[in-house]
Amino acid sequence: MERLNTLETELRANDPTFDSANSLSLAPGESHQLHLSTERIRAPEVFFQPSLVGSHEAGLSETLEFVLKRFTPDEQVGTYLFLIIYLI
To answer: What are phi and psi for residue 64, nearest 5 degrees?
Structure first.
């Protein structure tokens, strides 16, 4: 706790807008908690929206659409069914 107070003093000296009123108000057990909520759902979204992590590549759905457009409509159905069966 002493080290934290020292760091806050240094922060106040270097940053006059630093507000230490809220920094020590947490109970000791609350300051070491990790809260998880939608990470299990959002992590797979990167496959469909790579821009979420700063990548400029096409997502899975865009890539599949690009590949399927190269086939005739009849071939698209067969290729799509093959992909679905393969992925499941």
So the answer is: -60, -40
Q: What is the pLDDT of residues 14-61, one digit of tens each?
A: 777 766 555 555 566 666 665 566 666 667 788 888 888 888 888 888
Burial of 20 (C-beta count, 10 Å sphere; 0-12/13-18/19+): middle
- The answer to whether the predicted template modeling score (pTM) of the entire model surpasses 0.90 is no
- 3-state SS assignment for residue 16: coil
- First-to-last alpha carbon distance for the chain, in angstroms, is 53
Question: How many other CB atoms sit within 10 Å of the CB of residue 79?
Answer: 15
* Cβ 59 vs Cβ 49: under 8 Å: yes
* DSSP-derived secondary structure for 39-83: HHHHTTHHHH-GGGGT--S--HHHHHHHHHTTS-HHHHHHHHHHH
Q: Are 26 and 4 in contact (CB under 8 A)?
A: no
